[in-house]
Known about the structure:
Blueprint: H1 2-14, H2 19-29, H3 37-48, H4 50-72, H5 76-90, H6 98-106, H7 112-122, H8 126-146, H9 148-151, H10 156-172, H11 182-185
Amino acid sequence: xxxxxxxxxxxxxxxxxxxxxxxxxxxxxxxxxxxxxxxxxxxxxxxxxxxxxxxxxxxxxxxxxxxxxxxxxxxxxxxxxxxxxxxxxxxxxxxxxxxxxxxxxxxxxxxxxxxxxxxxxxxxxxxxxxxxxxxxxxxxxxxxxxxxxxxxxxxxxxxxxxxxxxxxxxxxxxxxxxxxxxxxxxxxx
Length: 189
């Protein structure tokens, strides 16, 4: 993974005009080389500075979300697999709020497209999905782009405190009402 990032850094330095476009394209291709979103956002902060890194990362992630929206309905087996993983992680009746999805995006080991599926369940129309995608990607991009330099200096106890605080926020932002149909509650009737 470090070799891939070094290649990205050297390429960006060599082609200043194409660098933003290549960086945005790298956001679209990063899942095929198994690089986490957080690492790419940190690289954007290092390469372009905080403000431009945020803008380019946000554009890349919004394009990725739009591409996901267009492709996921055409790949029903992948969609079903992601739904099964969602049900294992959050339960059968869990419907995450936009705030919960935004918080889970801040935790690097949550699958980005799994959270896109959760967002798609919340907002199935393209316009509302993209609005939710923008809302959930802003904290991710800002946090990892601006504070990316400092994250590497965090101690393990500080990381545990941050994850605990995010867990509390996740619990606070949950949906307080769950509606179940009679047949779901009593499956034998």
